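Data availability (excerpt). The following record was deposited with the supplementary files.
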Amino acid sequence: MNSLPRFSTSAMSLAAVDWKALQRLRAAFLAGTAGRAAYWQSERDLASYDATFAARIGWKWDHVLDELARLGWSPPSGPVLDWGCGSGIAARRFLAHFPPPSLAEVWFSDQSSLAVSFATQRARSAFPEVSVRAGQPARVGTLLISHVLTELEAREVDELLDLVSSAEAVVWVEPGTHETSRRLIALREKLLARSAAALNVIAPCTHLKACGMLAKGNEPHWCHHFASPPAEVFMDADWTRFSDEMGIDLRSLPLSYLVLDRRPRPPLPEGAARLIGRPRVYKPNALVYACDASGVAERSITKRALPAEYRLAKKDRLEPLQVWRCDGAVVTEMKPLLPPVETEDDETEAVSSP
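Predicted structure:
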């Protein structure tokens, strides 16, 4: 995986980070007021953000793109558009996972011309063999959308859905909060109801039916997942200071996402299920929320019947995509749908946030 663990990857030292600007940006993001006015005041704002907050968003994109590659997905032909690009981290992570010559043209669009200028410069520097342009192409091959829903009004979301409907493929990553996830689920249903869009859901869903989160009784739950930061960040003084200054737990990277494609969806085996959130582990069993063709429900992985899987759940290392059989709410058989990713044991293992 291509990660962005250090401030230096954005050509910026700790001394150059504008902490006041980061505090101002974070306050606007948390208050939900970021979309009401241009919040980039200088190139230094963007560089400070790109080295810190955007790097964390980049790890979320790595999580999604790693799995897409393991599923055998690759982008369709045509230009890539990073819509609402900010510092352009989504496109740069996308290019790192699907490098040229498969992708030869990338566009950046944002309400801030300062952001577009910054994003294009960074992309040209990192990928000189790619044609990098500002604005929107006449035809979009792959549309990248990242962390925009908290900033858009209803009218703007409708306009964005028109663009989504016209793209060949869409990779959309958002924060893993209840509110944002539920909003993304509603947009999924809208898009699938548009016959003209003809889009297939590639991930995270294991089916093309209505989202099981919308079933009665699932209102408290939401479709969220967790990315893992590079282990190096926990031994990095720069990231320790960032955590202290911003009041952010470096271990927790919740996200929601949606991947759509006009091309046929590769078939998944019967019993394919997507684990949601993190397991709740008890002495006799681990409880997991999961989505499959039958809907969203809590399942029990017992220590007696599935000891190896129980231990993985206890370490929060169950593969998110599983093929299983269940007897009611109890899982009787399960195996990863994809080969497990090798990880190293260390004390920085991610833990569940409250």
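Summary of structural features: Residues 1-12, 344-354 have pLDDT under 50 and may be disordered.
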